């Protein structure tokens, strides 16, 4: 009970209502004390008027009047003359005097609290104004036990009434919270639990129905989350199936390319000058294709293999990339320029860097072709004491906003329509395997630039 939201709300409501009642209780007790003293003054004034009407009252009758008024003596001031009207022996010294004529609210509250604090019976003097302008002031002497007993009785009745009110209020609020808040929250939690047991079942997706704005917003947020997660799970299943298919295709394709590689070895012995010139490129392409198939199979098992680091001239790798892409563009297609310095030496995996640059250049070429323009693609590089910087820049139309959101996410970051988005994802993973970064440096109407940063380290990576 205490660990539930409604149970704690019940307790807090009871406490707060009681606190509010306490804040009301103190002024109420002070007001009760003032009314009690004013009542004694009024009764004393009535008793004194009886004596003024007949100066020859018996002593027994005076004592009875004082007893009925609850005082020891009565003093009236009329026409600037102070007159002891009724009197009887006072059993002790007067402890203090209270003047009710000009007493402020804080003074009355303070005096009431002090009265409750002092448990002993004391003699006090009370001064007030006579009712109906029957003089300038009236003064009485009385004991405090009856006053304190009446205040305690009144306070206890107020506290019991406050407790009953707080319990009733808290119970009503408890029921209201159970109906209007806790029950809908339990419904949302139930949807979450059912969805967690079977996230692939679309029947577990919540349908917002609450009329409370905050709960409605929570239901809509949960709906968006469940919908996105369901799509992600379905996509993961499709990716797993696609990965299995790709692994099978790569396995068979590797065997076919291995046979083709054997045939190209014989082509290299041909006497035809054209064949002898083209054979090394063909051999290199088939070798890379075999390596790619093997890498794909390794990726299907775990991830991209660790790079094999060697020193090589980046210009030569860039030249092979340009040559491969120029075969696809033809003589009148996009101009691809190799601006990498010929003496720039790089320590990395040459095959993986070839794949990275090829993916970037091919994406740029396809973006230009999709836009229907003939532009320029430039490969450039430089080095510093900390790292190597490689850039692939094009003069294309720039990347659309949607492509930038999931740029390096497989099957979501495709730049052209129909693209899978694998090229950038693979390139980013390969560069990350070198301890570097692949980022989108800039994009806009004047073109797009991708930047690669590879740390130099201590030469041992």
TrEMBL record:
GO MF assignments: ATP binding; phosphorelay sensor kinase activity
TM segment ranges: 6-30, 158-181
Chain ranges of the Histidine kinase domain: 248-458
Keyword Transferase: yes
Reactions catalysed: ATP + protein L-histidine = ADP + protein N-phospho-L-histidine
Its EC number(s): 2.7.13.3
Keywords per UniProt: ATP-binding, Kinase, Membrane, Nucleotide-binding, Phosphoprotein, Transferase, Transmembrane, Transmembrane helix, Two-component regulatory system
Gene3D superfamilies: 1.10.287.130, Histidine kinase-like ATPase, C-terminal domain
The UniProt record lists the keyword NADP: no
Pfam family, one: HATPase_c
PANTHER family in alphabetical order: PEROXIDE STRESS-ACTIVATED HISTIDINE KINASE MAK3, SENSOR HISTIDINE KINASE
Protein name, per record: histidine kinase
Organism the protein comes from: Cribrihabitans marinus
Lineage: Bacteria, Pseudomonadati, Pseudomonadota, Alphaproteobacteria, Rhodobacterales
């Amino acid at each position: 009970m205490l660990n539930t939201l409604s149970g704690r709300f019940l307790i807090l409501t009871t406490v707060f209502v009681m606190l509010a009642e306490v804040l009301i209780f103190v002024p109420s007790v002070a007001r009760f004390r003032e009314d009690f003293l004013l009542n004694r003054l009024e009764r004393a004034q009535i008793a004194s008027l009886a004596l003024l009407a007949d100066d020859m009252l018996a002593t027994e009758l005076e004592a009875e009047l004082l007893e009925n008024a609850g005082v020891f003596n009565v003093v009236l001031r009329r026409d600037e003359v102070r007159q002891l009207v009724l009197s009887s022996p006072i059993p002790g010294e007067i402890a203090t005097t209270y003047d009710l004529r000009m007493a402020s609210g804080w003074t009355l509250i303070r005096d009431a609290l002090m009265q409750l604090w002092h448990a002993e019976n004391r003699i006090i003097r009370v001064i007030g104004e006579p009712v109906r302008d029957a003089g300038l002031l009236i003064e009485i002497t009385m004991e405090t036990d009856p006053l304190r007993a009446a205040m305690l009785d009144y306070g206890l009745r107020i506290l019991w009434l406050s407790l009953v009110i707080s319990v009733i209020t808290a119970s009503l609020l408890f029921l209201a919270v159970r109906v209007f808040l806790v029950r809908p929250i339990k419904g949302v939690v139930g949807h979450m639990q059912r969805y967690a047991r079977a996230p692939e079942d679309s029947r577990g997706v919540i349908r917002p129905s609450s009329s409370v704005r905050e709960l409605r917003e929570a239901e809509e947020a949960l709906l968006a989350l469940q919908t996105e997660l369901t799509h992600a799970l379905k996509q993961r299943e499709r990716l797993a199936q696609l990965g299995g298919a790709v692994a099978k295709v790569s396995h068979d394709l590797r065997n076919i390319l291995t046979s083709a590689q054997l045939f190209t070895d014989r082509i290299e012995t041909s006497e035809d000058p054209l064949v002898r010139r083209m054979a090394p490129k063909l051999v290199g392409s088939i070798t890379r294709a075999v390596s790619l198939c093997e890498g794909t199979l390794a990726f299907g098992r775990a991830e991209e293999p660790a790079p094999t680091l060697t020193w090589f001239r980046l210009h030569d790798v860039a030249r092979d990339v340009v040559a491969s892409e120029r075969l696809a563009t033809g003589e009148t297609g996009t101009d691809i320029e190799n601006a990498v310095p010929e003496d720039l030496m790089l320590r990395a995996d040459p095959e993986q860097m070839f794949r990275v640059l090829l993916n970037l250049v091919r994406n740029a070429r396809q973006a230009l072709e999709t836009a229907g323009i003939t532009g320029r693609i430039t490969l450039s590089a430089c080095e510093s004491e900390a790292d190597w910087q490689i850039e692939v820049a094009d003069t294309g139309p720039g990347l659309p906003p949607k492509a930038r959101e999931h740029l390096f996410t497989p099957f979501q970051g495709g730049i052209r329509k129909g693209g899978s988005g694998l090229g950038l994802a693979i390139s980013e993973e390969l560069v990350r395997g070198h301890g570097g970064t692949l980022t989108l440096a800039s994009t806009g109407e004047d073109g797009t630039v991708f930047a690669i940063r590879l740390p130099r380290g201590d030469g041992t990576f």
